[in-house]
Amino acid sequence: MKEIPDHLRTGLSVVFIGFNPSPKSGEVGHHYANPRNNFWRILHRSGLTPRLYTAAEDHELLELGYGFTNIVSRPTRTAEEITREEYAQGRQILRDKLELYRPQVACFVGKGVYTEFSRRSHVKWGFQEEPIIEDVREFVAPSSSGLVRMPMEEIISIYKGLFKKSPFDPDAEL
């Protein structure tokens, strides 16, 4: 299975960072393509997108100021299949990407993604107090996997914390 392309550029409001692509994402070449993954529904229901997008439209979110990448680029069925070496290499590659593109916010889609990147064991939901990359705010959100047991409304409320107001409000602020 091939790696899926990042959607990154300078000036983004938020870069969403996952563990790694699912086999379905690797097959179709788009982020969060597994039909059991709730990512696109979460973005829409939290007010981060004006409509419900599909994985095939992932590149279109660049126009909304959103980008996508992963800590590890190799598709796997579960994060448990990722090796320690892949994480070590992925941490440095991700750090380089964040330093190069400098999004306003790096949103880690899952506490595990952030703990692998930061090497911190105690992490809270939302904005982190001590970012690793200077001038890039770090936000930890629940995983969008369909296997997550947290109620959907709670997940959505955490994602809403990315903005003080809906991003489609002209007075919205990160």
UniProtKB/TrEMBL annotation:
Domain (Uracil-DNA glycosylase-like): residue spans on this chain: 7-152
Source superkingdom: Bacteria
Family matches, as Pfam families: UDG (PF03167)
Presence of keyword Aminoacyl-tRNA synthetase: no
UniProt entry keywords in alphabetical sequence: DNA damage, DNA repair, Hydrolase
Stored InterPro entries: MUG/TDG, Uracil-DNA_glycosylase-like, Uracil-DNA_glycosylase-like_sf
Protein name in UniProt: Uracil-DNA glycosylase-like domain-containing protein
